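User: Here's a chain of 255 residues. Predict its fold as tokens.
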Amino acid sequence: MSDLGKIEITVQNKIATIEFYHPKSNSLPSYMLKEMTEAFNKFSGNPDVNVIVLKSSGDKAFCAGASFDELLRIENFEQGKEFFMGFARLINSMRKCKKIIIGRIHNKVVGGGVGLVASTDYALATTKASLRLSELALGLGPFVVGPPIERKIGVEKFETMALDCEWRSAEWAKESGFYHDVFSTEEELDKAVNDLAANLAGRSPEALESLKKIFWENTEHWDELLEQRAENSGRLVLSDFTRKFLEDFKNKKKK
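Assistant: Prediction complete.
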């Protein structure tokens, strides 16, 4: 599977960079979710790292969310729950991570990818980085990724995104507090990300850790909450509606 997707990790000047890539629009299969989770856990207690930058490669989507190939292979509740627990563990590793996480969002974000971005502490994007929660169209819902998204933009806007499944522009995301700033080009985005990361790398690690705790107050129950959400998704993915949607999708791929 490593020939399909990969995670590249670098550390320089107290800045850790986690960069992921998958040829299918940077979708996230389970093994990549696991590697990213392990990376955030590892860097959380690393004294040589003050800040983490999360980014993806290529000129397509920043992240297309869950791997449809894996969704198609789910045959029972246990497999379904474990599939969605991959996102639950990743989100929890990011909120618990003692380091500030900067998101570099260069292009569109779909489904689980929206939850990934919402779990960063400071997201910077280009004007191409529109957002969409598409889960309801599959007969599911943004259950596991819901808590970090709702935390960012509030209940009303989360409800709207979850129910209408429509695209939201990068400017909308900025106005809603999802992105902290939006840039016209990737060059401008990179400069902003690099400048912010360098700035934070020189700050007090203790102060940054204390701020991170404050940012994520009142989320201590998320280990249990996100597991419950994963169980809900694990059941729904076996529903007649979702199985038909996935079968139709599989048949379209064969044509």
